[in-house]
Design goal:
The protein is 69% helix and 2% strand. The N terminus and C terminus are likely disordered.
Length: 427
């Protein structure tokens, strides 16, 4: 377990200690996390903004607000708690907005963003969310983590059907890197992937130009119908499918941060940036998991610098929102899929091992893992939430439980079988 360490920069942990904790592996891992976060769902942000009737300037402002918000919170929280704490925009929330905002005036949409952010902040300030998280068994938390990340591992090999050379070369470089230079395995993977993509002529930067994005302020308006129809669903989706997995991933990786302040800060940041298009900021799960494995650093206490690097990367991408869009469009999807899958291999393996370790909770953990990995959406809420609910239900009903006592090992099973055979022979 990696406990929270109260080491503010101004007193117990001087700034120079951060520079000492940095390494090439944490720097690259942080940038990979940014790449995974943006590359997997940036297009949904455009769809959500367009559904609200946003102009090009307003779409750029949305990207600016989200990038600045993720950058400041990831940087600040990682430094404050010395853990790789990353934030992200609410991807399910953006998908919800893309379907619910058509016909809603932009001013009322901003009002709904503020309302949702106020509810999230309230959950953090009151400690309600932290009390809920403490009731989640570690095995189910690990199973949820593995289930959330499974599709990235699968997509690594699914790309072989269309672009076999790139993922195989990146996989080979990962294996060799893990053997000879574990700390720099992902650095090597990134270099090989970009180099091979450029050699094949698939890396085109012709449409990329460096242009800063200017924020656009929109005064909010409040409509009861919009607050109920957009604001409350946005709050529920963000808390259930984003913040809950986000804090669970941290706990599954062995970190124990104070939960309520994290939720409170994401809500407060959204409150400040909502008028510029920052519809929902939350704790990251997938991109944060990239920074929690041994690929980031062998020492778990130094992995927070990957979160710091990601925060700086988000800030830069927020300032240059339009440039970011063109840059990510220049990278082939196979490269992003392979990079994400390889960066998460160790985390997936650790999650599965922890989920299955306790036989008394194995059935419940397996249900959580499979339900989460299915990706099914029920009542507008994603599989991560329902997987955890299903696992808790199985655990509560007693499935897979054994009476307290000695662990049920293979040796014990053999002994019981011998005893049963002897009893049957005597009978």
């Amino acid at each position: 377990m990696i406990e929270y360490r109260d080491t503010p920069l101004t007193r117990d942990a001087p700034l120079r200690s951060v520079w000492r904790d940095f390494s090439a592996s944490t720097l690259v891992t942080g940038l990979v996390a940014v790449l995974v976060g943006y590359g997997s769902s940036a297009v949904i942000i455009f769809q959500a903004a367009e559904a609200a009737g946003a102009s090009d300037a307003q779409i750029g402002s949305w990207l600016w607000a989200l990038g600045i918000g993720m950058g400041l919170t990831s940087l600040g929280l990682s430094l404050r708690y010395r853990m790789p704490i990353l934030t992200a925009w609410s991807t399910p929330g953006a998908a919800l907005l893309a379907t619910s905002l058509p016909g809603v005036p932009m001013e009322q949409a901003i009002g709904a963003f503020l309302f949702s952010a106020a509810l999230i902040t309230l959950c953090g300030v009151t400690g309600l969310f932290g009390a809920l998280v403490k009731r989640i068994p570690p095995a189910l938390a690990a199973a949820l983590l593995a289930g959330v990340l499974l599709r990235f591992g699968i997509e690594l090999f699914a790309t072989l059907a269309t672009a076999w050379l790139l993922p195989l070369a990146m996989l080979a470089s990962y294996v060799l890197g893990r053997r000879f230079a574990p700390r720099y395995a992902i650095v090597l993977v990134l270099l090989v992937g970009v180099g091979l993509t450029a050699a094949q002529g698939e890396l085109s930067l012709a449409g990329v130009s460096l242009a800063p994005t200017l924020p656009v302020f929109t005064a909010p308006a409040f409509s009861l119908a919009t607050l109920v129809g957009v604001g409350i669903p946005l709050f529920v989706v963000t808390m259930a499918t984003q913040n809950l997995p986000g804090i669970t991933v941290l706990r599954a990786a062995g970190y124990r941060p104070p939960t309520s302040p994290l939720i409170g800060w994401t809500g407060a940041a959204t409150l400040g940036l909502a008028p510029f298009g920052g519809f929902a900021l939350n704790l990251a799960a997938i991109s944060a998991a990239v920074c929690m494995g041994r690929e980031a650093h062998e020492d778990p206490l130094r992995r927070y610098t990957a979160g710091v690097a990601a925060g700086v990367g988000y800030l830069v991408l927020g300032v240059f929102g339009a440039t970011v869009t063109a840059l990510f469009a220049a990278l082939p999807g196979a490269l992003i899929a392979a990079l994400a899958g390889l960066a998460l291999l160790g985390t997936i393996g650790n999650g599965l091992a922890a989920a299955m370790a306790d036989e008394r909770q194995r059935d419940a953990a397996l249900v959580t893992f499979l339900f989460t990995a299915s990706g099914v959406t029920l009542l507008g809420i994603g599989a991560a939430f329902w997987g955890l609910v299903a696992g808790m239900a199985v655990l509560w009903l007693g499935a897979g439980r054994r009476p307290a006592g000695r662990p049920f090992t293979q040796e014990r099973a053999t002994q019981e079988k011998v005893t049963q055979d002897k009893q049957a022979a005597i009978g």
